[in-house]
Amino acid sequence: MATAKAPKTFVIDTNVFIHRSDAILSFRGVDVVVPVWVLEELDQLKSYSDERGRNARHAIRLIDAIGKHGNLREGARMENGSRLWVALTHADPRDVGFLNDKMDNRIILSAYQLQQEGREVFFVSKDINARIKATALGIKAVDYDKQKVDADALYSGYADISASEDDIRRLETDGEIPWNDVLPPNQFLLLHRKAEDDAVIGRYMSDTQSLRFVDYKMPSVAGVRPLNPQQRMAFELLLDPDVNLVTMIGKAGTGKTLLAIAAGLQMTVDEKTYQRVLVSRPVIPMGKDIGYLPGAKNEKLSHWMQPLFDNLEYIIASYKRPNMKTVDQLVGSNVIELEALSYIRGRSLPGQYIVIDEAQNLSPHEIKTIVSRAGEGSKVVLTGDPQQIDSPYLDASSNGLSFLVEAFKGQDLFGHVTLQRSERSRLAELAAELL
């Protein structure tokens, strides 16, 4: 009689829990192993007040709850059909020439010991360096890809097509034409004439299954005018109160932040659609306490928000308003509010135009935390460049901004545009392309 094949064993690194606290529930019908060194690291992180601390505490509580229904040393059964183990030993580092002075190495050695026992082991880590070291020991190392997307095929929000002269003329004249091809709501089409390079912009309206004309010639928005078709598409979404969630992706200098803030000020100051513009950016890891910096909240945030202030100063110079002569006036009159991302958790934000810059540095869970704060009548705009990520455990495929774009594609209240052309300067465009 053939013996049953042992289930695969997945050894989970600490950073996976920091990325997603309930990651162990993603593995079905296998053995999930948490080395005791991972618990040590989670114990050190649990006192932090930021997202890492919250995830560490939740992960510990989840492991404890599963352990109450079984033996974590022999394997506690989980509802998804897997078993959860806590590995208490690891291989002798002298046997493999591996240093034992780093916690990462101890975790990898735990996976190595399990493999030496005859198990089919997969080491799961968000740390590429840890995966390389595990692979060097002959261990199969994989990234945690539960919330990953294909960055190379990421939804751009628009498409180029060839169209007949009759269709283009009717679209420009009537303002809207029927469109039989089903597209994601709020996707744009660049309709090209066969013999011309210029294109007419159409926006797909899913409720009427039609293409709506988007006039490139438009009044300035808080003194800012679109300089290319993608920027015009962005303004179309940013100025539509029925589109509650907008994402913009693009390299440096494409105007993501400038467009978002200009549209927010127009809809707050002139159109009174929103009560205020709330802006934030994760210049440092989300949730890091600002209490140790000198000064009041706005003074502490001013260093982090300087890129936003640069855009505001440009807008103020073009947007002639008596009560908008300086950034301090805007902040002091509560037209614009600066907020640390760590303080958004638990808040309800109705009637606000919320701009989150550099959102590519947020995990999918952190993005969920932010978007779920939006109250009735609020609009959320997230901007970023997935190719410029500072977080050591995120990349173009696993960051929260890319994940959000793919998750919300097809929703009526969502719109997205990928900005292609840098308009900051010729030097900035060359730097983004060549460096």
Written account of the structure:
With 435 residues, the chain is α/β, with parallel strands linked by helices. It folds into 2 domains: 9-142, Rossmann fold, CATH 3.40.50.1010; 220-434, P-loop containing nucleotide triphosphate hydrolases (Rossmann fold, 3-Layer(aba) Sandwich), CATH 3.40.50.300. It has 15 helices and 17 strands. Strands 3-4-2-1-5-6 form a 6-stranded mixed β-sheet, with helices on both faces. A 6-stranded parallel β-sheet has the order 14-13-15-16-12-17, sandwiched between helices. Strands 7-9-10-11-8 form a 5-stranded mixed β-sheet. The longest helix is centred in the N-terminal third of the chain and has 17 residues, at 51-67. The chain starts with 8 loop residues before the first strand and ends with a helix. The model is unreliable at 285-289 (pLDDT under 50).
Quaternary status: single chain
- Contiguous low-pLDDT stretches (5 residues minimum) are 285-289
Our measurement of the CA-to-CA distance between the termini, rounded to an integer number of angstroms, reads: 62 Å
Which architecture name of the largest domain does CATH use? 3-Layer(aba) Sandwich
Q: Gyration radius, to the nearest Å?
A: 25 Å
Number of domains: 2
Question: What is the highest CATH level, the class of the largest domain?
Answer: Alpha Beta
Classify the beta-strand content into a percent band.
15-25%
